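User: Here's a chain of 174 residues. Predict its fold as C-alpha coordinates.
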Amino acid sequence: MAHMTTPTRHHRKRHERRLAAARHCGWLLRFLKEDRGAASADLVLFTPLLLLALLTFVQFALWSHATHIAQAAASQGLAATRAHNGTTAAGTASARQLLDQLAQGPLTGASASAERTTESASVRITGTASAVVPFLRLPVHAEAAGPVERFVPNVYGFRNSEAVVGGNQSGGGR
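Assistant: Prediction complete.
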Protein backbone atom coordinates (compact mmCIF):
# COMPACT_ATOMS: atom_id res chain seq x y z
CA MET A 1 0.00 0.00 0.00
CA ALA A 2 1.05 3.49 -0.65
CA HIS A 3 2.18 5.51 2.23
CA MET A 4 0.06 8.64 2.73
CA THR A 5 1.45 11.70 4.39
CA THR A 6 -0.32 14.68 5.75
CA PRO A 7 0.07 17.89 3.74
CA THR A 8 2.86 20.01 4.98
CA ARG A 9 2.73 23.73 5.48
CA HIS A 10 4.55 24.28 2.18
CA HIS A 11 2.00 22.17 0.30
CA ARG A 12 -0.91 24.05 1.86
CA LYS A 13 0.51 27.44 0.82
CA ARG A 14 1.06 26.25 -2.71
CA HIS A 15 -2.51 24.92 -2.83
CA GLU A 16 -3.87 28.25 -1.58
CA ARG A 17 -1.90 30.15 -4.21
CA ARG A 18 -3.33 27.90 -6.91
CA LEU A 19 -6.86 28.49 -5.71
CA ALA A 20 -6.29 32.25 -5.65
CA ALA A 21 -4.85 32.15 -9.17
CA ALA A 22 -7.79 30.07 -10.39
CA ARG A 23 -10.26 32.57 -8.88
CA HIS A 24 -8.37 35.44 -10.50
CA CYS A 25 -8.16 33.67 -13.90
CA GLY A 26 -11.81 32.74 -13.68
CA TRP A 27 -12.72 36.42 -13.37
CA LEU A 28 -10.43 37.26 -16.29
CA LEU A 29 -11.84 34.46 -18.44
CA ARG A 30 -15.41 35.56 -17.67
CA PHE A 31 -14.45 39.12 -18.62
CA LEU A 32 -12.83 38.00 -21.89
CA LYS A 33 -15.72 35.69 -22.79
CA GLU A 34 -18.32 38.43 -22.62
CA ASP A 35 -19.61 39.32 -26.09
CA ARG A 36 -21.15 42.68 -25.27
CA GLY A 37 -19.66 45.32 -27.58
CA ALA A 38 -17.60 42.85 -29.61
CA ALA A 39 -19.34 43.75 -32.86
CA SER A 40 -18.69 47.44 -32.28
CA ALA A 41 -15.04 46.79 -31.55
CA ASP A 42 -14.69 44.68 -34.69
CA LEU A 43 -16.40 47.36 -36.74
CA VAL A 44 -14.14 50.08 -35.36
CA LEU A 45 -11.02 48.04 -36.08
CA PHE A 46 -11.80 46.52 -39.46
CA THR A 47 -13.72 49.27 -41.27
CA PRO A 48 -10.71 51.61 -41.65
CA LEU A 49 -8.56 48.69 -42.80
CA LEU A 50 -11.18 47.65 -45.35
CA LEU A 51 -11.47 51.23 -46.63
CA LEU A 52 -7.69 51.55 -46.89
CA ALA A 53 -7.51 48.31 -48.88
CA LEU A 54 -10.29 49.52 -51.19
CA LEU A 55 -8.61 52.90 -51.72
CA THR A 56 -5.27 51.21 -52.41
CA PHE A 57 -6.93 49.04 -55.06
CA VAL A 58 -8.50 52.14 -56.65
CA GLN A 59 -5.12 53.93 -56.50
CA PHE A 60 -3.35 51.18 -58.42
CA ALA A 61 -6.18 50.97 -60.97
CA LEU A 62 -5.86 54.73 -61.51
CA TRP A 63 -2.07 54.39 -61.86
CA SER A 64 -2.55 51.65 -64.46
CA HIS A 65 -5.01 53.83 -66.39
CA ALA A 66 -2.60 56.78 -66.30
CA THR A 67 0.21 54.53 -67.57
CA HIS A 68 -1.96 53.41 -70.50
CA ILE A 69 -2.78 57.03 -71.36
CA ALA A 70 0.91 57.95 -71.25
CA GLN A 71 1.78 54.99 -73.49
CA ALA A 72 -0.91 55.99 -76.01
CA ALA A 73 0.41 59.57 -76.06
CA ALA A 74 3.98 58.32 -76.55
CA SER A 75 2.88 56.11 -79.46
CA GLN A 76 1.00 58.94 -81.12
CA GLY A 77 3.95 61.29 -80.64
CA LEU A 78 6.31 58.69 -82.08
CA ALA A 79 4.16 58.34 -85.20
CA ALA A 80 4.47 62.09 -85.83
CA THR A 81 8.18 62.20 -84.95
CA ARG A 82 9.31 59.26 -87.08
CA ALA A 83 7.29 60.23 -90.17
CA HIS A 84 9.28 60.99 -93.33
CA ASN A 85 9.18 64.76 -92.80
CA GLY A 86 8.44 64.58 -89.06
CA THR A 87 10.11 66.70 -86.40
CA THR A 88 10.55 66.53 -82.65
CA ALA A 89 8.26 69.55 -82.31
CA ALA A 90 5.52 67.76 -84.26
CA GLY A 91 5.92 64.64 -82.10
CA THR A 92 5.84 66.59 -78.86
CA ALA A 93 2.79 68.58 -80.00
CA SER A 94 0.96 65.40 -81.05
CA ALA A 95 1.67 63.70 -77.71
CA ARG A 96 0.73 66.86 -75.81
CA GLN A 97 -2.58 67.08 -77.71
CA LEU A 98 -3.55 63.55 -76.70
CA LEU A 99 -2.49 64.18 -73.10
CA ASP A 100 -4.65 67.32 -73.01
CA GLN A 101 -7.64 65.31 -74.24
CA LEU A 102 -7.28 62.20 -72.07
CA ALA A 103 -5.09 62.85 -69.07
CA GLN A 104 -6.96 65.62 -67.25
CA GLY A 105 -8.01 63.38 -64.34
CA PRO A 106 -5.71 60.40 -63.91
CA LEU A 107 -2.36 61.92 -64.92
CA THR A 108 -0.99 65.08 -63.31
CA GLY A 109 2.12 67.05 -64.16
CA ALA A 110 2.52 65.27 -67.48
CA SER A 111 5.42 66.28 -69.72
CA ALA A 112 6.35 65.10 -73.19
CA SER A 113 9.74 65.14 -74.88
CA ALA A 114 10.83 63.82 -78.27
CA GLU A 115 14.20 62.99 -79.79
CA ARG A 116 15.03 62.27 -83.42
CA THR A 117 18.26 61.21 -85.08
CA THR A 118 18.87 60.16 -88.66
CA GLU A 119 18.17 56.52 -87.74
CA SER A 120 15.69 56.52 -84.84
CA ALA A 121 13.10 58.54 -82.97
CA SER A 122 11.73 58.33 -79.43
CA VAL A 123 9.09 60.05 -77.32
CA ARG A 124 9.02 60.06 -73.51
CA ILE A 125 6.04 60.87 -71.30
CA THR A 126 6.43 61.40 -67.56
CA GLY A 127 3.98 62.42 -64.88
CA THR A 128 2.32 61.33 -61.66
CA ALA A 129 -0.88 59.38 -61.13
CA SER A 130 -3.58 61.29 -59.28
CA ALA A 131 -3.54 60.50 -55.57
CA VAL A 132 -6.45 58.66 -53.97
CA VAL A 133 -4.53 57.35 -50.96
CA PRO A 134 -2.91 60.22 -49.04
CA PHE A 135 0.90 60.39 -49.23
CA LEU A 136 1.07 57.79 -52.02
CA ARG A 137 2.53 59.40 -55.17
CA LEU A 138 3.04 56.92 -58.01
CA PRO A 139 5.22 58.03 -60.94
CA VAL A 140 4.16 57.30 -64.51
CA HIS A 141 6.73 56.76 -67.28
CA ALA A 142 6.12 55.73 -70.87
CA GLU A 143 8.46 55.64 -73.83
CA ALA A 144 8.00 54.73 -77.47
CA ALA A 145 10.90 54.35 -79.88
CA GLY A 146 11.31 53.27 -83.45
CA PRO A 147 13.23 53.78 -86.68
CA VAL A 148 12.78 56.95 -88.74
CA GLU A 149 10.81 56.45 -91.93
CA ARG A 150 12.96 56.88 -95.00
CA PHE A 151 12.10 57.18 -98.64
CA VAL A 152 13.66 54.40 -100.70
CA PRO A 153 13.92 55.41 -104.36
CA ASN A 154 12.74 53.22 -107.21
CA VAL A 155 15.68 50.93 -107.98
CA TYR A 156 15.95 48.74 -111.09
CA GLY A 157 12.31 49.33 -112.05
CA PHE A 158 10.88 47.73 -108.90
CA ARG A 159 8.05 49.14 -106.90
CA ASN A 160 9.06 50.43 -103.48
CA SER A 161 7.93 47.24 -101.68
CA GLU A 162 10.08 45.14 -104.03
CA ALA A 163 13.27 47.17 -103.66
CA VAL A 164 16.61 45.43 -103.62
CA VAL A 165 17.25 43.88 -100.23
CA GLY A 166 20.69 42.55 -99.42
CA GLY A 167 21.85 42.50 -103.03
CA ASN A 168 18.89 40.45 -104.35
CA GLN A 169 18.28 41.73 -107.86
CA SER A 170 16.21 38.80 -109.05
CA GLY A 171 12.99 40.69 -109.58
CA GLY A 172 11.27 39.94 -106.29
CA GLY A 173 7.92 38.39 -107.17
CA ARG A 174 7.39 39.40 -110.79
